[in-house]
Amino acid sequence: MSMASDHDDVTLFRGAADNSYFDVYFNALPREGAEAVECEMREVDLRPDREMTLHVEVYNPGGTIPLIVTPGGMGECDGFRGFARNVAAASSDLRVIIWDRRNLGRSEISFGTEPLPIEEAEDLHVLIHRLGLDAAAFYGMSSGSRSNMVLAARYPNHVAALIIAPLTGGPIASSRLPEEYYLKYLGDESLTSMQAVAKTPLWSAYLARNTPELQESFMRQDVGDFMAAMKRTGEHLQSYRHKTTLGMSDEELSSLEVATLILHHGDETDELHPIPNSRAATTLLKNSAFEIADTLEPILELLVPFVRTHTPHVGTV
User: Fold this and answer.
1) Is 233 a member of any domain?
2) At what angle do helices 296-310 and 77-90 cross, to 10 degrees?
3) Residue 146's closest CA among 109, 189, 196, 181?
4) Distance between CA atoms of 146 and 13, rounded to whole angstroms?
5) How many domains does the chain have?
6) Most buried residue, 56, 110, 165, 180, by most Cβ within 10 Å?
7) Is the pLDDT reported for residue 211 higher than 50?
């Protein structure tokens, strides 16, 4: 199981450890065979299409069924690679790809001009090509599923299947998450420079794990651009207060035709990922199913055949 100290990790929302998915996802212990899974780590430059370099880890690089995992919260490969490795250990034909979104983990800093889930989806669009893929299955955890859903709406040919585990929605999520992730910076009058931002918990952790080059890149950013991105993204998520999920309108959800599996841990007290919102999403998504799977093995029993059924094979790398 995850360590007690993990519960306060700065990349996670307070309360993230209050359900069984915490141990499945964050600093997950290896299942049988996981420690023997081959891994390739890459820094993927998206230029000239996007001014961004992304940190990517590929488990089972010889696998022929690509599954891209987008971590939840403000999470990154360091915390979630154990889950990716466990999925890869479940089936050698799965090529499990986990990545750090922009501004997180070991990826580059850039605040862009659109709400960050949209910037992340556009990064994914280019990343898929850089990885030599036409399409893949996409596994998104909470906030990670937003980037994946935007990608499916904008570039449906890229997305062979979606797994949302769990889906974020409802008025409590639309109030608490934008504040905790983004809007809290706007009320801090001490944040007048990137040097000041660098002292806050999330960003000091980013700097501590990264190279001098990425540290310098962070310090070169304009604090006004940082604040604008926090405001833009926070208000964007707040605007979905009365929608089924954050980051997508019900009309956009209804337009998605991709095969979708929505998973939930089953805890009815989870106010950020309410079960009724997951069930409601299945009435909007044309080709979807909802299942309760509270631990790793039930997740894998549903995930592996679903991905195999809907994802085309690719050549080895």
Assistant:
1) yes
2) 70
3) 181
4) 16
5) 1
6) 165
7) yes
% residues pLDDT > 70 (the chain): 95
Q: Which two tokens stand for residue 31?
A: 């299942």
Residue 23 belongs to domain spanning: 4-310
Residue 167 lies in a domain: yes
CATH number for the domain that contains residue 104: 3.40.50.1820
pLDDT of 18 reads 73
Are the CB atoms for 71 and 77 separated by under 8 Å? Answer: yes
pLDDT digits (tens, 9 = 90+) for 137-196: 999 999 999 999 999 999 999 999 999 999 999 999 999 999 999 999 999 999 999 999
Is 153 contained in some domain? yes
Has residue 315 been placed in a domain? Answer: no
Tally of residues, the chain = 317
Span 281-300, average pLDDT: 97
CB 168 within 8 A of CB 272: yes
| pLDDT on residue 4 | 45
User: What is the per-residue pLDDT for 16?
Assistant: 55
Q: Determine the Cα–Cα distance for residues 215 and 245; give it in Å rounded to an integer.
A: 34
Confidence of residue 315 (pLDDT cuts 50, 70, 90): confident
* CA–CA distance, 67 with 62 (Å, rounded to integer): 13
35 pLDDT exceeds 90?
A: yes
Q: What is the pLDDT of residue 10?
A: 79
First to last CA, the chain: 33
Write down the pTM of the prediction. 0.95
